[in-house]
Amino acid sequence: MTATQVNGLAVMADEPTLSPITGPNGAPIYWRQTRTLLLEDETKVFGCVHCDYTADNPHKVRPHLKVHREPEPEPAAGLYDLPLSDLLARVAELEKLTADRDTWKRRALKAERSLATMRRALNT
Ligand SMILES: [Zn+2]
After folding, report:
1. 37 pairs with which residues across the strands?
2. What spacing in Å lies between the alpha carbon of 96 and ligand 1's midpoint?
């Protein structure tokens, strides 16, 4: 939260801070994260909108704002992040599954043929 006291002085007013930039049609643009604080001794300081950091100059607040930036999210672990040994283990597992599937497929075809032979024998 923005400071409510600076060096023991109460903040009397907390206002938006006008930036030196103007928008289209000369409309004023305000900093979104820098507040202008009027202290009880009528001095002005500039405060961070997120915490009680203050500075005598709005340009000092800007570099401070990076402490509030969200850290970059960790990318989800994908195949590219796996160590080579893990990748090889996965390939081996896949090959085994494929081999199992082929074995079962051969057995199924063989059983089907046996069944067909038995059917033919019974029909004759
Ligand atoms: Zn801050």
Report:
1. 14, 45
2. 56
Give the span between the Cα atoms of 97 and 24, in whole angstroms: 64
Cβ contact 14:2 at 8 Å: yes
- 79-92: average pLDDT: 82
Quote the ligand 1 centre to 67 CA distance (angstroms). Answer: 7
> What's the mean pLDDT when you consider all of the chain?
90
In angstroms, the CA 105 to CA 10 distance is: 82
The pLDDT tens digits of the residues spanning 51-60 come to: 999 999 999 9
Within its chain, how far is the Cα of 109 from the centroid? 51
